[in-house]
Specification:
Blueprint (H helix, E strand, L loop, with lengths): L1 H9 L2 H8 L3 H9 L6 H14 L6 H8 L4 E6 L5 H4 L1 H14 L5 E5 L8 H4 L5 E4 L6 H8 L4 E4 L9 E4 L1 H15 L4 E6 L6 E3 L9 H15 L6 E5 L4 H12 L7 E4 L2 H13 L9 E3 L5 H5 L6 E3 L2 H20 L8 E4 L2 E3 L12
Parallel strand pairs: 1-2, 1-3, 3-4, 4-5, 5-12, 6-8, 6-9, 9-10
Antiparallel strand pairs: 7-8, 11-13
Helix pairs in contact: 2-3, 2-4, 7-15, 10-11, 12-13
Length: 360
Amino acid sequence: MQARIELMSRVTLQTIADRVGVSRMTVSNAFSRPDQLSPELRQRILSAADDLGYVGPDPAARALARGRTGAVGILLTDSLRDAFTDEVATTFLGAIADELEPSGLALTLLASGRGDIVPARDVPMDGAFVYSCDTRSPGVEWLRRRKLPLVYVDHAPVDDAPSVNIDDRSGARAAAEHLVELGHRRVGIITASFAGPHGLVTNPVSTGDGHVTTQRMLGWLDGLDADGIRPVVMQLPTDDEHLAYDAARSLLDTVEPPTALLCFSDLLATGALRAADQLGLNVPGDVSIVGFDDSTLAARTRPPLTTVRQDVAAKGRIATSMLTALIEQTRAGATTQAEHVVLPTTLVVRDSTARPRAVE
């Protein structure tokens, strides 16, 4: 057994070449350029490699020789856990994975980094997505300093890199106008803010906030300001259902509660629905609630949620197509022009909104 382990540790491309009776380059092509060999010859080489216990060329050495890593990164501001638990994020990542599969590129999740641990600086990759990141994230600066091909998603566009966004402002405005048309005049907003302050705020538009947060807030205010409505705004540090539950309770359990709530996401709207139920309020009879995203969660709530639909999968596919093309263009030394795509949104009216009792 020990001899077998020692033999495996010494197996090289030349070992396999000697076994099969071909050149070392032919063996190398069997792993990295299979189209250069006949199927029969490649199978003979792979069978010999398997018999000898050879697992393939060292990935690090192969990446160095090729000048490419075979992987792209995606920089996230929040905890990597959110990439597996947030439905919008998982849909987006799934679309990227599907689109990357034919290219053979792997996807690496990158946290923003803490202290000496900075994945955006240290992890090998051929390019990266910058996904809904805090503008103050050091990870963004490191990716730019490395001069990697980048595509920005749900992020303020920059002049020298392509980007994909949805029309957050238009979607939020449509949601607010829907409530105004129903007759609501006391409106609350529950949103998530990178920069803070958190809790009740009087100046909800912060220059330090992320692109999506800012655009949705501007859209809500566009729809409400036209009728002179001043909303009460609750800003949360993150997109969290439990925090939204607490925020909604504090807004609704007052002498003159809002008759409608606009929420940053369907997830926050779910927390608001739960708070209304705990307070014995009927939705939409006592309070109307609107979400954003039209995730599968929106149709499963009781009542089904009025929300703003965005095509998350299309966003992922377009961003991936942009990044893979940019990587190839960069390798070829071609001059590229940054394209900025804005995808439309659609208001989806379901059963969580109605006219307030006072104007029925």
